[in-house]
Amino acid sequence: MILINCPYCGEREQSEFSNGGEAHVARPKNPEALSDKDWGQYVFYRSNPKGIFYERWVHTHGCRKWFNAVRDTSTDTFLKIYRLDDNRPDISEFKSTLKSPSGEPSVGSGNFAVKK
Amino acid sequence: MRKKYSFLSLIKNAFTNNENWEKMWESPDPKKGYDVIIVGGGGHGLGTAYYLAKEHGIKNIAVIEKGWLGGGNTGRNTTIIRSNYLWNESAHLYDHSVKLWENLSEELNFNMMFSQRGVMNLAHNEHDIKEMKRRISANRLNGLDTQWLDTKQIEELVPIMNTKNLRYPVLGAAFQPRGGVARHDAVAWGYALRSNEMGVDIIQNCEVKDIKTDNYKVEGVNTSKGFIKANKVAVVASGHTSVLAQTAGVRLPLQSRPLQALVSEPIKPVINTVVMSNAVHAYVSQSDKGELVIGAGTDGYNSFTQRGGYDVIEETVRAIVELYPIFGKMKMLRQWGGIVDICPDASPIISKCEVKGLYFNCGWGTGGFKATPGSANVFAHTVANDQPHKINEAFNLERFSDGRLIDEHGAAAVAH
Ligand SMILES: Cc1cc2nc3c(=O)[nH]c(=O)nc-3n(C[C@H](O)[C@H](O)[C@H](O)COP(=O)(O)OP(=O)(O)OC[C@H]3O[C@@H](n4cnc5c(N)ncnc54)[C@H](O)[C@@H]3O)c2cc1C
Ligand SMILES: [Zn+2]
Predict the structure, then answer these.
(1) What is the pLDDT of residues B39-51, one digit of tens each?
(2) Residue A107 above 90 pLDDT?
(3) Nearest ligand 1 atom to alpha carbon B47
(4) I need a surface site. Which of A52, A57, B125, B358 has the fewest CB within 10 A?
């Protein structure tokens, strides 16, 4: 069971929230000049890292406000939660325990006991 | 020499307490290089090696697996097999697979325990009925054996089902009699055994760290056992495929999420078909050992923790208990998760890409077990000839820019 710290309400159970996918995906500024390939990238392609991921959440069954989070997708640990009007935190702030792109973290994946 | 399994070999090995069965495949150290390296030792990867060796005469192949064979989604799935998908492209691909399943035990001389006990998709509202009847008509035009069942016919097939006293009553079902279940490990082991006999190297406990390319041409893979050269690299790593693609500078439109399943204590036979319901999200079949095999949904966010959220199983179990009140007091024995690679149109990608010699077979998401032999068969063709087989032509990467999506959300949803 994961707890998410809503910037407006505090810690609540994850099932109160809905995920909005990758954060900071900007709508293209020059739509008329975009190729089909570029449109495809904007519409269908999102990053899917194992490790540090910037994403959006909304507190559906609470205040219904949107906010951003940085989460390690290999352990589901929330590294930072910030408001939409906050700046995107720099990736150098966060450390992943992964030794290779598709390796397993030292603790926290479903293949190992979760010890904290 | 071809290892043979038969009733006689069972008896013979019973006399020695089953301690003298020969090893099914060798575990060699990797060679310096191969014609083809397949990344991922699940059913699709091992099957690809088998068809490359058998149908295309390429034998200098390695299958590289980070953990153990079938330890990914192949060994974690609920094994539902069917082909009643909406669009022509999908119907052809999935039925190619069902046809191969029908002869796979004989072909590999290894028991797939393929049981064509039928697969039923329940309708719970007016929209479900319309969508399913449309799909049945489309299936019929593609020569598939799907048919509509009314509530009375459902009750005859599954007497333990509560069809009326529940929030979303059962109004009918789409039924495919040729659908069913198979033994998950057997397909991985059978392909491993027979491809190893043809000279394929099977390398377990070896992680591919990145794919090495030079000027849009593949050179090999860096692994935990060092660099291995390859003319062609075929990535079949389900949830991890997009992460590996990224190391070669290729972006794939995939999102990785945990999908869960659970099994109960074993009981006497009570349900002899597979029943799925997308609307209330619960599906169940009974294994030959007697356990109920229950599939839950995906978590609502990307994750690589092979675990899954508790609220997701709770939702499924609620629906199961409402549909089958007699399961209410049963104990569940095990629960687990697998990381599935979800594609925007709920259809797979079996394709080459902008890097020469690099191929992907992924995006099977929540429903690729059924496709194992068919997918492996057409992927081997794609890798061997550097161009797709007619059956997987449409499952390319270009569809995400030219718009020719194969939208199977209705047929796939999360159920399989
Ligand atoms: C709970 C659950 C239920 C499901 N139910 C059904 C169902 O009823 N019917 C159905 O049709 N489908 C179902 N599916 C989907 C199905 O399991 C998959 O689509 C299918 O098994 C994928 O097979 P695969 O061989 O492509 O992948 P996998 O079996 O996952 O194999 C990929 C392999 O790649 C390996 N790998 C990953 N990264 C690396 C690396 N860096 N280096 C080396 N190896 C690596 C992994 O360890 C893994 O063994 C279900 C899935 C889950 C999780
Ligand atoms: Zn809130």
Answers:
(1) 999 999 999 999 9
(2) no
(3) 25
(4) B125
Decide whether any atom of ligand 1 lies within 6 Å of the B74 Cβ: yes
Q: Tell whether A116 is within 8 A of chain B (Cβ).
A: no
| Cα of A112 to nearest chain B Cα, Å | 9
Closest CA–CA distance from residue A33 to any residue of chain B (Å): 15
B364 Cα nearest atom in ligand 1: 19
B312 with B414: CB under 8 angstroms? no
Ligand 1 neighbourhood includes B363 CB (under 6 angstroms): no
Please tell me whether the interface predicted TM-score (ipTM) of this complex is above 0.90: yes
What is the 3-class SS of B143-174, one letter each residue? CCCCEEECHHHHHHHCCCCCCCCCCCCCCEEE
B interface with A, Cβ–Cβ below 8 Å? 66, 207-210, 224, 237, 240, 242-244, 246-247, 251-256, 258, 300-311, 336-337, 344, 400-403
* B71 CB near ligand 1 (under 6 Å): yes
| Contact yes or no for A76 and B305 at CB 8 A | yes
DSSP characters over B345-367:
TS--EEEE-SSBTEEEEE--TT-
Instruction: Spell out a b/e string for B71-88, using b for 16 or more CB atoms within 10 Å of the CB, else e.
Output: bbbbbbbbbbbbbbbbbe
Contact between B2 and B197 under an 8 Å Cβ cutoff? The reply is: yes
Residues within 5 A (CB) of ion ligand 2: A 6, 8-9, 59, 62-63
Number of residues in chain A: 116
What span, in angstroms and rounded, lies between the C-alpha atoms of B220 and B37?
A: 8
> Is the pTM value of this prediction over 0.90?
yes
Sorted by where each begins, the domain ranges of chain A are 3-93
Smallest CA–CA distance, residue A87 to chain B, in Å, is 22
Query: What SS3 class is residue A62?
Result: coil
> Does pLDDT of B217 surpass 60?
yes
The span from the CA of B217 to the CA of B199, in Å, is: 26
Percent of chain A clearing pLDDT 90 (strictly above): 82
Tokens representing B147 are 């048919």
Beta carbon pairs, A and B, within 8 Å: 93
Residues near B255 by Cβ (< 8 Å), separated by ≥ 6? A21, A46, A48, B302, B341, B342
Render pLDDT for B327-383 as a digit per residue (tens, 0 to 9): 999 999 999 999 999 999 999 999 999 999 999 999 999 999 999 999 999 999 999
Residue of A nearest to B336 (CA): A110
Q: Is the Cβ pair B255, A46 closer than 8 Å? A: yes
Q: Do B400 and A75 touch (CB under 8 A)?
A: no
With bands split at pLDDT 50, 70 and 90, how would you rate the model's confidence at A111? Answer: low
What mean pLDDT, rounded, does chain B reach? 96
**What CATH homologous superfamily does A3-93 map to?**
Folate-binding superfamily (3.30.2270.10)
Picking from B63, B22, B26, the residue whose alpha carbon sits closest to that of residue B41 is B63
For the residues of B258-309, what is the DSSP string, one character each? EEEEEEE---S----SEEEETTTTEEEEE-TTS-EEEEEEE-SS----SS--
